[in-house]
Write a structure and sequence with these properties.
- The complex is a heterodimer of chains A (261) and B (407).
- Chain A has 261 residues and is α/β, with parallel strands linked by helices.
- Helix content of chain A is 35%, strand content 25%.
- Chain A has a 6-stranded mixed β-sheet with strand order 6-7-8-3-9-10, with helices on both faces. Chain A has a 4-stranded antiparallel β-sheet with strand order 2-1-4-5.
- In chain A, a hairpin with a 2-residue loop joins β9 (230-235) and β10.
- In chain A, α5 packs parallel to α6 (193-206).
- Chain B contains 9 helices and 20 strands.
- With 407 residues, chain B is α/β, with parallel strands linked by helices.
- Chain B has helices spanning 3-14, 22-38, 54-57, 82-88, 90-96, 107-114, 348-355, 361-377, 385-397, and strands at residues 62-63, 67-70, 77-81, 119-124, 134-139, 146-148, 151-156, 161-170, 176-186, 191-200, 204-214, 219-226, 231-240, 246-255, 260-269, 275-284, 289-298, 306-315, 321-330, 336-344.
- Chain B has 2 domains: 3-345, no CATH class; 363-407, no CATH class.
- In chain B, the strands form 2 sheets. In chain B, strands 1, 3, 4, 6, 7, 9, 11, 13, 15, 17 and 19 form an 11-stranded mixed β-sheet that branches. Chain B has a 9-stranded mixed β-sheet with strand order 2-5-8-10-12-14-16-18-20, with helices on one face.
- The chains are: A alpha/beta (261), B alpha/beta (407).
- The interface between A and B is large, with 39 and 32 residues.
Chain lengths: 261, 407
């Protein structure tokens, strides 16, 4: 088989995300105490762990949340030093965080917000901005692909949204912004089983060889619907165990204590 | 400090006002007597705690007439000057003028009523539906130290419908006082969208009173946008005087430098089964200061009242300040009244959220700030007014429109 001559995908030997011995603090308390994690293009990694283990800290820190300070270690995203990049630069390079607690923005409709974000990305790539009609076309295609309607596009961003609507809105943003790495921070929290299935189905529709996921969750339940390639257990700021998808089932059976977390 | 103003009144009564009918002369006399008695308010009064009008009281203003601009008037509407209406419809005028804007509510209303001569009357006949907005612009004259008392009387008869824009404008570069009074009467089933725009210079003083009187089944959506003057004080007083009346008050202040805007609203639920909603937002930069005082009165017997009030203030600089005070007076037991207010800088989590979606820090701040304005502008129903104000507020906040506009 002749290899394709114009394959721009990263070589499988170069990880998309490479976290090495990462230590981080919030308000002087050390939360991450030496995290190592490698995510290659197209892989889905689940990070599980008890409350307070540092899962959400890791997710938010990767997106550039200002509350966290990195004290040592390194993170490379597509070969670049992640900490050299502002949050918006990380987003433009293809890193996306689905927030555990999406923020309400008064006075800005969801469609205007999404178009602003898409246009910020396009500007970064040297592409012309989309006008409302072009954008509507893009949006409709994305909505169709994940099987949703546009009922909350003209409401202010997350304002008065139910828990389920907020999480769906995060996944819609993921669909429209087309990141290379999507980090889902407890996307299952606060969802009933039907909403969970809907969100998981949309995420699965967005899985591809070119896109990686880091799924942060407390419960194994989500992983019945978004089946990961790898499962890691984070405890007290370190990854204490890694394995395949079956590790999640072991956790479900024996609890975090049962795997030494 | 009132001597200069009392003197101006004497000159006015002797000259410009002498042709008025006796009822109007008596109204003016009662008003100046009231003003002479109470004088200018001081910050020792609770209602004037945050707004110091001493500089106004010490300025030797000269009485002038406003310069009015009217767009062509749609069919079914009568728009005429106050002096013409005195001649053509004296009974109609006497039945309404000064009946709602009680001179006891404010010394400035007393002063305005004493000088009552300069104004416009808009009358929409019963069951007339006007879709094109009626636009009235009032400009400050270019004389030194002008003092004007523009008066607007708007009467929508039974089941009439209209959209009206009242705009107060002018930056003459010199100190001025605009002391406006607007009275709005909605008869049974009438529906009005009223938009008030105010944009004046750094040395302008703008004192205003808007009085709304609503009969049953009437509906008023009022939006006021204050884009600045040195000092703005606006008292808004709505009386829901018939069941099933509906009132929406929207307010937006966008200020910078040393500008000051004080909104005092009173919604008087006099009859049962009425609904009122109030949404006031403010964006304050520089050393500007915003004041919101929202009073809601539910009279005995006004059961099933539904009233909601929110006031959100965004402080863009350390020197900016906002004071927010709800005031609920409820004398009925089966009512739903809620209120809430916020004062603070941009939410850092919201900023991070926008930046995590690829928006630059400045762009994210601009969008969050603009949202405070857009939330109010989106409630404007008057055709064309929203777009015009949107561009103006974007320009002021430095938030460019995206390609193809349409927020």
């Amino acid at each position: 088989m002749t290899p394709p001559t114009t394959d721009h995908r990263p070589q499988t030997t170069v990880p998309l995300l490479e976290i090495r011995d990462l230590h981080a603090t919030v308000e002087g308390n050390e939360i991450l105490k030496g995290v190592d994690l490698t995510v290659r293009t197209g892989e889905v990694h689940a990070i599980m762990g008890p409350n307070g283990s540092g899962k959400s800290t890791l997710a938010q820190l990767l997106a550039g949340h200002p509350a966290y300070s990195v004290t040592s270690g390194s993170v490379r995203f597509d070969g670049k030093d992640l900490f050299e990049l502002d949050p918006e630069e990380r987003a433009r390079e293809g890193l996306f965080l689905a927030f555990q607690y999406p923020v309400a923005i008064r006075g800005i409709t969801n469609s205007y917000f999404l178009r602003s974000a898409v246009n910020a990305m396009r500007k970064h790539k040297g592409l012309p901005e989309l006008d409302p009609l072009d954008f509507l076309q893009v949006l409709e295609d994305k909505l169709k692909a994940i099987g949703w309607d546009d009922s909350f596009m003209n409401r202010a961003v997350n304002e008065g949204f139910s828990g389920g609507e907020k999480k769906r809105n995060e996944i819609l943003q993921l669909a429209v912004l087309e990141p290379r790495l999507a980090i889902l921070d407890e996307t299952d929290s606060g969802l009933d089983i039907d909403a969970l299935k809907t969100v998981a189905a949309a995420v699965n529709a967005l899985r591809s060889k070119e896109r990686s996921f880091v799924v942060v969750t407390h419960y194994q339940r989500l992983l019945n619907y978004i089946v990961p390639d790898f499962v890691h257990v984070l405890a007290e700021g370190r990854i204490v165990r890694s394995g395949g998808k079956e590790l999640a089932l072991t956790l479900e059976e024996k609890g975090y204590a049962g795997v030494g977390a | 400090m009132t001597a200069h103003f009392l003197g101006a009144y004497k000159a006015f009564a002797a000259n410009g006002a002498s042709g008025a009918p006796p009822w109007l002369k008596e109204m003016r006399e009662r008003a100046i007597a009231r003003f002479a008695e109470v004088g200018f308010p001081t910050t020792r009064l609770e209602q004037w705690r945050f707004t110091n009008v001493q500089p106004i009281s010490e300025t030797p203003f000269e009485l002038q007439r406003s310069s009015w601009e009217l767009d062509p008037v749609p069919a079914g509407v009568t728009v005429s000057t106050l002096s013409a209406t005195v001649a053509t419809a004296p009974d109609f005028l006497q039945a309404h003028l000064g009946r709602y804007a009680d001179v006891a509510t404010s010394p400035f209303t007393a002063l305005a009523t004493a000088f009552l001569a300069d104004g416009i009357v808009i009358r929409v006949a019963a069951r007339t539906v006007v879709t094109d907005p009626i636009r009235v612009r009032c400009r400050i004259p270019r004389n030194p130290r002008p003092m004007t008392h523009p008066r607007l009387l708007i009467v929508l008869e039974r089941e009439a419908r209209a959209a009206i824009v009242e705009a107060y404008e002018g930056d003459t570069g010199s100190v001025s006082l605009t002391n406006s009074v607007t009275e709005v009467v909605l008869e049974e089933g009438a529906q009005l969208d009223l938009c008030r725009e105010q944009r004046e210079g750094a040395l302008s003083n703008h004192v205003a009173a808007s009085h709304f009187h609503q009969a049953r089944d009437s509906r008023l959506v009022f939006t006021t946008v204050a884009l600045g003057a040195g000092l703005v004080r606006h008292d808004i007083h709505g009386v829901l005087d018939g069941s099933n009346a509906y009132l929406i008050l929207n307010g937006l202040s966008v200020l910078s430098d040393r500008q000051h805007v004080d909104h005092h609203t009173t919604i008087d639920h006099a009859k049962p089964h009425c609904e009122s909603h109030e949404y006031f937002n403010g964006v304050f930069d520089g050393e500007s200061h915003g004041v919101f005082n929202g009073r809601i009165i539910v009279r005995p017997g006004a059961q099933r009242t539904d009233s909601k009030q929110t006031n959100n203030n965004l402080l863009l600089s350390r020197g900016a300040r906002a004071d927010s005070q709800p005031q609920l007076e409820i004398y009925a037991d089966d009512v739903k009244c809620t209120h809430g207010s916020t004062v603070g800088p941009l939410d850092p989590t919201a900023l991070f959220y926008l930046r995590s979606r690829g928006l630059g820090a400045a762009e994210a701040r601009g969008l969050l700030t603009y949202g405070f304005g857009a939330e109010i502008l989106d409630r404007i129903a008057v055709p064309g007014a929203r777009q015009r104000l949107d561009s103006e507020i974007r320009a002021r906040l430095g938030v460019p429109e995206m390609v193809g506009s349409a927020a």
